[in-house]
Amino acid sequence: MIFDFVVIGAGSAGCAAASGLAQARIGTVCVLEAGPNDAVPQVKIPFGLLYTMGSKRDWNFKSTPQTNADNRIFNVNRGMMAGGSSSINSMVWFRGRADDFDNWQQPGWTWEDVEQDFINIEQLMQPQQIPTPHPLSVAFAKSFRANSNAPPTPERESAGLFDTNSRNGRRWSAADAFLRPAVRSHALKVITGANVNRISFEDGRPKHIELIDGRVVTARRGIVLSAGSIGSPSILMRSGVGPAAQLASLGISINVDSPQVGQNLSDHPVIGVHHEGHNSGYGLVWNQSLQWAASPFQWLAQRRGRLTSNFVEAGAFFRVNPVTADDDRPECQVHFIPYMMGYNGKSITSGAGYFADVGVCRPVSRGSLTLSSADPRATPNIDLGVLKEEQDVQTLVGGFRRLRQLLANAPMADRRAPEVYPGPSVTSDKEITDHVRARCGTAYHPVGTLAMGEKHTPVTNTLQLRGVDGLWVADASVMPGITSANTNAPSMMIGHRAAKLILTEIKN
Q: How would residue 60 be classed by pLDDT, with cut points 50, 70 and 90?
């Protein structure tokens, strides 16, 4: 249980970071993953995300009551297995906007700096459209004709079928692309069922990783923390790195007073609209029973059919406010799901239909994460800060109106179905605002809780934990600001880039 480098977390970024370190042959590398492996059908079959979300392979975090969203408690789904959230998510692949990275204003993280990293990881991920999209998704993809057959892009108003991290009709996670090849070819060991409690220090340097079952793993040269925007700050705070007064109140000894640990939490807020009608989308109805019965055999034999669906098959980006001389960026992203989604408390229900949600690309609201207890089994206090700022509310209200227009104008022909929730009677600004506060969710994209930056931020722009040698952070928690679309691809980019930064430092 002694290695040169230990990576905590086999998620999207952790797999990429571990692979880069192992390939460099700099010594022994170990990855600690709290969950099990990902070798089960419900992970490999794209449609299986219906069963992995909320399962034992999900951390199943819950938020605190969200004050500006009717005091509701939100699900914060995070993958707990090899591949992390890339093994349970809808596999949507976006780099983000080029200026997302420029706007971080961090040396070494401009678009010019990171573009080649995206190219490198995409050679392994090979993002592609799913092989058998639903006709409704194909129709919605034509909402902006200028986009042709290309996937939509946050660089401009556009619609299209999404690229996904799937290959030949099966999920292709970070574990598939990075972890397993590194295990086969390089000095890399993966330990599953290794839930980390804390990192202990020796002579002021992080040295030992204590698991909640009492085992101890030692890192001779360095530790890479890749447990995600919820897990990474939680582990650091249990290790005595964080707001000193807060940690002391929980009986935790202080190693580094870092007040911004757990702050700057951001996620994409979304609000949806439900349509239901015979002969529209996928659903639990008698006239689709034969197709459902045949779908497993079609997937096994051809890697085609409805089980290749990632649910979120198509989407769009658009503006809500008029274009100005200073800003023409799309403000909203749409996810289109050609499936009957429940709206009365159950996500799976009978009937056929389709669903779409619209989210804010660059929300200004911020939340925070704090420990509820020093016990590693206790869920942290996750305040997503949803709709804390009125600007986000107004963007969602405007986005909801335009989403309805897109759905009404998409060439769905005889597959078009009427809106059933919230229903066509909800039209005024107040009614839509009330609906937004009562029913909005998030896109499950938490970022920013260990933001890199200058002086007082927890992490430097070389991903070192500020004030600590031999400890780096590599996951979405280091983002100073959320990217303008789905965050899985940027997380892998951060892990890939982290390995290069670490190698540069240890060789100097």
A: very high
How far CA 461 is from CA of 90, 228, 455, 470, in Å, comes to 30, 17, 11, 15
- Sketch out the chain's domains with CATH numbers: 1-126+171-267+366-387+448-508 (3.50.50.60), 129-162+269-360+388-439 (3.30.410.40)
Catalytic residue set: 445
pLDDT band of residue 156 (cuts 50, 70, 90) is very high
- Backbone dihedral angles phi then psi of residue 8, each to the nearest 5 degrees: -95, 105
**SS3 for 305-372, per residue?**
CHHHCCCCCEEEEECCCCCCCCCCCCCEEEEEECECCCCCCCCCCEEEEEEEEEEECCCCCCEEEECC
The pair of three-digit structure tokens given for residue 95, joined into one six-digit string: 């780099």
232 versus 54: the higher-pLDDT residue is: 232
DSSP tally for the chain: helices H, then strands E: 14, 23
Residue listed under structure tokens 């200073």: 326
Alpha helices (H) in 28-173, listed in sequence order: 41-44, 49-52, 98-102, 111-125, 135-140
**How far apart are alpha carbons 401 and 433 in whole angstroms?**
11
Cis peptide before 422 (omega within 30 of 0): yes
